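Continuing the batch. This is chain 6 of the set; chains 1 through 5 are on the previous pages. Same settings as before, nothing changed between runs. Recording input and output for traceability.
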Amino acid sequence: MKKILRSMLAMMIAAFTLASCSDVPSPYGLFTSGDEELEGATGTGTLDDPFNVPGVLNYIKTLPAGTQSDVVYVKGIVSALVDGQNYDAGFGNGTFFISADGNAKNQFEVYRALYLENQPYVDGPIANLGDEVIICGKVTMHGSTPETVDKEAYLYSINGTTHYDARIFGTAEEPLSVADALTIINGLENGETIGKGYVKGIVCQAPSNISAGKLTYYISDDGKSSNSLQVYKGLGLNQAKFSAVGDLAVGDEVVIFGPMTRYSNGNPELNDGNYLISLKKGEGGGGEEETIGTKDSPKTVAEAITLINALGDRETSQQKAYVKGKVVKVTTNQTNFEKYGNLNYFISDDGQDANTIQVYGGDGLNGDKFQSITDIKQGDEVIVYGNLYKFVNNSGTTPEITNSYLVALNDSEGGGGEGGEATQMTKNVNDLTITFTTTGISEGNTVTYDLTTCGLEHQAANPSFTLNEVNFSFEKNTGNNNAIYWKTGDYNEFRMYAQNKLVITGTANIAKVEFTCTKNGSNNATGNAQSYATVSGKTFTFVNDWTAASSGTQCRIKTIKITYAK
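Output for chain 6:
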């Protein structure tokens, strides 16, 4: 299959045609000819030290007329698109403009550049306003326009992401069957994504909860639970958010477009980033029993073990189950946690190391990734949602729950309890705010902190400062980009990129935290739908838990309101 895909890619690249670059008229605010140099130029044009936009504009002025440079690297913010359509689907390249600060002044044209990893782009606009990019390629002065050389450049990175997989399987008109999709996905290594696919199926297991407008459910070819494919955190038609769990039901016929992934635990799925192409409502038939137990009436560990013992060797239950128990031990080591982000742990009815079920490769609340091995501890009371599995090898039989995530921790979604200090906070999202709330903690005094009064300079990296005795500390964390303070023109906010962390140390125990965010271009005000937060006493921790290089990667914060516990 890999040889076939490489051949397809080679044919796509061979299909490119040459075309001349014409000068771009105003109002793009391009740097014009002259002997003056722009101020603020930085960089030497290498990957480790890329030109900023003033730097590359000054560099281009040193080139002899009509010549091209060697390959250089240029870093900037996407500032303008051409007529709102900045890519050519026929040739897989795109044209747009970048500047040092994202404003329409002294811009540099990225002309007919390829996508990440020097590959053609076949799925939507190459870049969005406000994206931070690094361009690799040759540059020139074409007439009076400084630009990359036609088809001699590509996007090295977008918002810190450098990898791209352009493979598309099926079409909206002729989608893959679920069986075809499973054949492709099951041929992958655990944790591997092969590209995106159009897949048609019937909902065989309806979603049980909604997370930031996204639903997780299962589809199959016949509407039954066997040979099903998980649709993980999917959006609705036109990539709109769902409004309720009931928006999809067993028997609904759907066509879905999204990343085809074999998850780290081997589960085949259409991964986060998928959405509906079409929806034909069914009559509720075609499915089997929806779940084993319910969230409000979960099975005990003993009951689940009895059900697992009735399965065949290495057999997985066709339905998902809700199982309630207490954590006995967490067995995941740090190396595996850093690789996969999920946890292996054991639960029993009484928290003792007997009559246990192993939760294998389980995710956190609402299917989000855990942030630390210590997110759950011995004694924590949990409700786990996943498939029952009878694992058998030479060492014997182990009852397991697979393809799972937490629906409750210590008797509430995000509640804290005797098992651990940190309390995972629930979240509500709208266009301009993110609100995190604890469960069961009475609210007291509320104080609003205007972060833009911090007195920092423009683009201060990973800043840490104190306002009214409260410390705010932004960290790069495991991300590729630093968190920065952005202060230019009308924009004045803190920008958190993928995996950046914010730690707030308040003056008393914290009950609720509210971010007020800005909205600029295609970047979502709230950053993303997977953000993770905990509170432990006076300390609030927020991680922008996002990995995609699409719009919505950034979380842009202006003010933070803290409500303290009584």
